[in-house]
Amino acid sequence: MRKGKKIQKLSVVFCTFVYIFLFLPISVIVVNSFNATTTKPYMSWKGFTLEWYAKLWENTSLLESFGNTMIIAVVSTCLATAVGTLAAVGMYRYKFKGKGLIDGLLYIPVVIPEIVLGISLLTIFAQVNIPRGMLTLILAHVTFCIPFVIFNVRARLYGYDNSVEEASLDLGANRIVTFFKVTLPILSPGILGGALLAFTLSIDDVIISYFVYGQTKTYPLKVMESVKSGVAPDVNALSTLILIGTILFVVLTQGDFFKKKRLQED
Amino acid sequence: MGKIVELDGVNKVYGSNHVVKDLNLYVEEGEFLTLLGSSGCGKTTTLRMIAGFEEPTTGSIKVEGDSVEEKEPFERNVNTVFQSYALFPHMTIFDNIAYGLKIKKVKKEEIKERVLAMMDLVQLNGFEKRYPSQLSGGQKQRVAIARALINRPKVLLLDEPLGALDLKLRKQMQLELKRLQKKLNITFIYVTHDQEEALTMSDRIAVMHDGVIDQLATPTEIYEHPKTKFVATFIGETNIYDGCVTSIKDGIANVTLENGVVSVACPEDFSILEYASVSVRPEKMRFSSEPVEGFGLIAQVKDYVYVGSVLKCIVSLPNGNELKIERLAGQELPKIGSKCYPYWEPSDAVLIHNESHYIFEALNSIKLA
Amino acid sequence: MSGKKKSLEFSSNTLPAMVTVGPVVVIMTLLIAIPLIFVAVMSFCSIDEFYNIQFQFTADNYLRLANPDYVKIYVQSLFIAFFTTLLCILIGYPFSFVIARVKGKYKKILYMLVIIPFWTNSLIRIYGWRSFLGTSGWLNSFLMKVHLIQEPLDLLYKNGTTILGMVYCLIPFMILPLYTAIEKLDDSLLEASSDLGAHPAKTFVNVVLPLTAGGIFSGSLMVFIPCLGYFFVSDILGGGNSDVIGNLIERQFQSGNNWPLGAALSIVLILVTLIIVKIYQRLGGDMDALGV
């Protein structure tokens, strides 16, 4: 036999190790959410319990922080997606002065360390006396999400055939109808990808939120607070539930994807 | 001339897909052999097994008498011209062509000399410093050929190398490739789905169909004496009908078709009452205004199509089937709608064993003489 | 504010351009450009005894940056970022190579398995590492139970632990661009190289590596720069022993309350970022390859 098989085995072993590395801390979280220990820092194993899942519902401040995170993520994803998609299309289509400047500004949130973005927003909010809270959090999240939406939509626009829009205009649709019936559906994979990325970035953001949150704590900030004294198992329980939720979401959407693909093959 | 490539009982199975079935094939040294067939017939897989990109499931492949199944592609003295050209986009044309020599650690001066000579041979002088993205399709093609030939392979494998070029360029490159092959006296194994290309360039053609070689012969032989119905229809245009051999006399068989009896030259391996197909090239077909002996076909002239040097005539038979007849332009022809009697020289038609044993209903109604 | 707007005058002055690009221009100007300029201004200010910012020009903050304690942390931060990037390449490259070249339906699943861990909050995952590596953590408990060790190993609060956490947090930013670059690689190029006599190792060096270098560059950029700012990783796993520049900035804005000094530190971080981006562009990196 040729050498290929040996290399194949080796690469399977290697990838398995990488996956173990990726999932190891998550399994710690999941296991600890069933840990019956009641003493800080909640590390040593004291037997199995479901108590933390029950206690989770009594921890209103934790649930509230999770609610805040979801509100901020949904609102800022929607805003960023709408503004970003419009801008991507506009920048692709129209020529105007200062386009290069906007382009440059868009790269800043992508490459610059988040902490710099966080403190710059903090200083400006403090300077113009905007009270920190839900509003500043949403403004901050929209700001760092927009470039990711624009870049995703733009990637889709590179392969975009302008003549389909001309065809739509030629067939009697006006510009607005054309935008909604032709442009938007064609760009939708890019828009969805950008929105998903924005949502992911928003729910996981610690650093930028850390500087602009005021009294409105998000779930990551709540975790950060508890990290100092040891993460309580009810935080682990919530994390486990979120993990199960995301996996279910992936399985459902991807399962759908596989079905569609099969239809196409037939 | 010896056998330079031999395939013996080669099979390739992907899962439940039997792509190449028990293939036996040899290629003579210095020969231009074409594997011809439609997509999915196993021709490219066969080529890739010779190159070493695929391993045969069973069977042996020999190059210059040595088994190569265990050898990696980089250990084989064969080179490939890829359908997509597969030029390295990050290297200049010079570096692309020099790649094989650099790998072999040939001296710098010699590399330069050989690359420039090769570029001269494929008429690419002055393109050394360009990148593949700056070349046209035809130029990329020449680079791909030069890159493979510079290693002086015993066998050059070409996988639909002209597929992406436009018609005019393709015709020109066909002649150039043939010229190169003659000049360098390298064995070419060429894969294509274009029958015209195969006929123009090859010393021998292997017509592949469904993982099997239907016929392996010279272009003339393949065109004039197709062995199977597939070969007859795949190579060139033809009129082909199924029937039954009803009599054989003096090397001429009478074959009863649905529309009547015809006469065909009969090879010795046919017998009376055998189901067979008759294939006649359009240019061999004739008309007559009166019935011809040995032919019972009656047709009506439906249409004329002018295609440059020839005129194509379409006639329809009583059951609705059509025959294509080619005439040189300018000849006198029956009018559209008029009755005619198609016939041909029995030696111009080919009788083909009909493996499918397809029995058409009308045959039952024919009273056998 | 108005000065900025003037330079953005629309030459075509068409309504659609205003409508589509306008909102982004406003947001990016108000929430990116102006705040950053303000930080630059602040870095030249001082504070009075009540921590109020005095808008009077001074270069003191920049002079204070040369403090040996700070210099030690810059060096340490660059060291951590460098090794994190290196490890991400060494782990991420072969891994991406394998999963990008898997054929069939498992490819999608393998890809999703890389993404899923990152939908769990990053802080809590880093905390998971602390639970795993701590003196009473899983690893030590296990090793003691099987009597491989008598005393728990001291694994936390070292540069190595911080690097581990950084690699863990940032490796997807290496894997994703590499995956994209490797997936684009045409199989026939590898076959052509092999066909022309190159051993797999040579094919890798001559063909695969140059054609996927773009992925390595953009991945490295996306790993190296955040690494300088991820203060929470060194907080949780480094316990103050392996601070990065981000920790210095965070301290000035939270407990230290010397915003102008924090601003000056941020400007340094911005300059480092700009230098790295310049290097990236010099190497032929495409800005559009970032963040997609």
Largest interface here, residues on each chain? Answer: A-C, 91 and 90 residues
Question: How would the global form of chain B be characterised?
Answer: elongated
Q: Figure out the total of helices of chain A.
A: 11
How is the biggest beta sheet of chain A arranged? none
End-to-end Cα distance of chain B: 52 Å
What is the tally of beta strands of chain B?
A: 19
- What is the helical fraction of chain B, as a range of percent? 10-25%
Biggest pleated-sheet summary of chain B: 6 strands, mixed
Query: How many β strands of chain A by DSSP?
Result: 0
Work out the radius of gyration of chain A. 23 Å
Radius of gyration from the alpha-carbon trace of chain B, in angstroms: 25 Å
Put simply, the count of helices of chain B is 9
Low-confidence sequence ranges of chain B: none
Specify the helix fraction band of chain A. Answer: over 70%
Average the pLDDT over all residues of chain B and give the rounded result: 88
Determine the CATH superfamily of the largest domain in chain B.
P-loop containing nucleotide triphosphate hydrolases
- Name of the CATH architecture of the domain at 60-245 in chain A: Orthogonal Bundle
Second-tier CATH architecture of the largest domain in chain B: 3-Layer(aba) Sandwich
Strand and helix order of chain B: EEEHEEEHHHEHEHEEHHEEEEEEEEEH
Name of the level-1 CATH class of the largest domain in chain B: Alpha Beta
Overall description:
The complex is a heterotrimer of chains A (266), B (369) and C (292). With 266 residues, chain A is mainly alpha-helical. Chain A contains 11 helices and no strands. Chain A has helices at residues 4-32, 51-56, 60-93, 99-111, 114-127, 134-158, 163-170, 175-204, 207-212, 219-227, 233-265. Chain B has 2 domains: 3-229, P-loop containing nucleotide triphosphate hydrolases (Rossmann fold, 3-Layer(aba) Sandwich); 238-365, OB fold (Dihydrolipoamide Acetyltransferase, E2P). Chain B has 9 helices and 19 strands. Chain B has a 6-stranded mixed β-sheet, sandwiched between helices. In chain B, strands 13-12-11-14-19 form a 5-stranded antiparallel β-sheet. A 4-stranded antiparallel β-sheet of chain B has the order 2-1-4-5, with helices on one face. Chain C has a single domain, classed as MetI-like fold (Orthogonal Bundle), CATH 1.10.3720.10. Chain C is mainly α and 292 residues long. Chain C starts with a helix and ends in a 10-residue tail after the last helix. Chains in contact: A-C, B-C. At the A-C interface, helix 1, helix 3, helix 4, helix 5 and helix 6 of A face helix 2, helix 4, helix 5, helix 6 and helix 10 of C.
